């Protein structure tokens, strides 16, 4: 499928990474559980030791590469044990003491921890907001620009192509965290980025039953260092997780379509409610991020963020929801929501809610949200 740019997202998703059909074999071979492989004589690949290679990863890596970089035969993908393993692999394999890295100051809440660690290794870290392409202002002298768009949880969007052109003009590499968008929502490598990195724990796999991460690049030289990092840290996914992830990719287009439609419907229902402030969803025509999102995204993702007036109001709302589980994370087929301030890491109001739209029937989900809002306002 790697040369099949003529196919649509759904066709590519259901076939992504599948091997050539073999009579009497399943279309997606089962997970290969192996710590080592038969390896008499000289140790030649492709499969030598279970921390370095696994046939189940190979198929999944091919599938993710086909979705992130369709038609690009040179795309290289590596899967990891979690999104953070993938994020760390890129940052820590590409940067050395004395280098400068630019991170968003409104990205995933583990980034400040990563920042501390980078600084402990002598790497200078600068941060700027995602909105208004503010990272442009701190690029001079940087070795690596880290972009998270849409940002989690604030849902700001920056212009990947513009930032990438500015970074490349300064000899700076660019990595984009593509977790929220998924490869069906946006393809950072086509917009010029050097790396697309993501947590596959979220919508990519979509069932809330596994952790996974991945890195994709078109530059084999860059990937050599990332692969070395995976080897020395051993941050590898289990074969069962890799297989489940691959199986789940077949429905990514269905889930992404339904979930982004549901997110937009929920956002539209919240829009104009007097108790709701700070409503954000990149698909809302009036959203500050909509213009640039509509230019670089093909689906707007399943997350909606907004605030209710107080912490107590937000808690009442969350308790009143029947079809939405209280949980952290996002992207699953069952809607989830949480009061983000309960973790203390994000600079958000006490009543700030991150809502992840699942694959429920749209009318049911919207009715549940509106009923819970009414109940929490009493
Ligand atoms: N990147 C983003 C944008 C995330 O939201 C998350 C997790 O929420 C991660 C990376 C880390 O992923 P994981 O939890 O799979 O390590």
TrEMBL record:
UniProt xrefs under Pfam families: Cys_Met_Meta_PP
Protein EC: 4.4.1.1
CDD domains referenced in this protein's UniProt entry, alphabetically: CGS_like (cd00614)
GO MF term set: cystathionine gamma-lyase activity; pyridoxal phosphate binding
Chain segments carrying region Disordered: 1-24
Top-level taxon of the source organism: Bacteria
PANTHER family tied to this protein: CYSTATHIONINE GAMMA-LYASE-RELATED, TRANS-SULFURATION ENZYME FAMILY MEMBER
Name of this chain's protein: Cystathionine gamma-lyase
């Amino acid at each position: 499928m790697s040369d099949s740019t003529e196919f649509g997202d759904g066709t590519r998703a259901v076939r992504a990474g599948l091997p050539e059909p073999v009579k009497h074999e399943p279309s997606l071979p089962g997970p290969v559980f192996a710590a080592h492989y038969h390896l008499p004589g000289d140790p030649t690949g492709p499969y030598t030791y279970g921390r370095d290679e696994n046939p189940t990863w190979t198929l999944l890596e091919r599938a993710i590469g086909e979705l992130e970089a369709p038609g690009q035969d040179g795309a290289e993908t590596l899967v990891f044990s979690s999104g953070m393993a993938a994020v760390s692999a890129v940052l820590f394999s590409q940067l050395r003491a004395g280098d400068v890295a630019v991170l968003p100051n409104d990205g995933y809440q583990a980034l400040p921890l990563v920042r501390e660690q980078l600084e402990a290794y002598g790497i200078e870290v600068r941060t700027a907001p995602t909105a208004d392409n503010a990272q442009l202002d701190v690029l001079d002298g940087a070795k690596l620009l880290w972009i998270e768009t849409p940002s989690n949880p604030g849902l700001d969007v920056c212009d990947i192509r513009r930032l990438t052109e500015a970074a490349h003009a300064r000899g700076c590499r660019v990595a984009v965290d593509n977790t929220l968008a998924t490869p069906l929502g946006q393809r950072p490598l086509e917009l010029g980025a050097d790396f697309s990195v993501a947590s596959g724990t979220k919508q990519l796999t979509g069932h809330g039953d596994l952790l996974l991460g991945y890195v994709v690049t078109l530059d084999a030289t860059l990937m050599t260092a990332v692969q070395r990092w995976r080897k020395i840290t051993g941050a590898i996914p289990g074969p069962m997780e890799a297989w489940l992830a691959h199986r789940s990719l077949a429905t990514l287009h269905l889930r992404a379509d339904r979930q982004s439609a549901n997110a937009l419907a929920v956002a539209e229902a919240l829009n104009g409610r007097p108790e709701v402030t700070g409503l954000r969803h990149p698909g809302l025509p009036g959203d500050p991020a909509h213009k640039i999102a509509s230019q670089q995204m093909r689906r707007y993702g399943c997350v909606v963020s907004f605030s209710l007036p107080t912490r107590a109001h937000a808690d009442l709302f969350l308790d009143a929801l029947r079809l939405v589980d209280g949980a952290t994370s996002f992207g699953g087929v069952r809607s989830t929501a949480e009061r983000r301030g309960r973790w203390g890491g994000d600079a958000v109001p006490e009543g700030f809610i991150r809502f992840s739209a699942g694959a429920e029937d749209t009318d049911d989900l919207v009715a549940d949200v509106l009923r819970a809002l009414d109940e929490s306002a009493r």
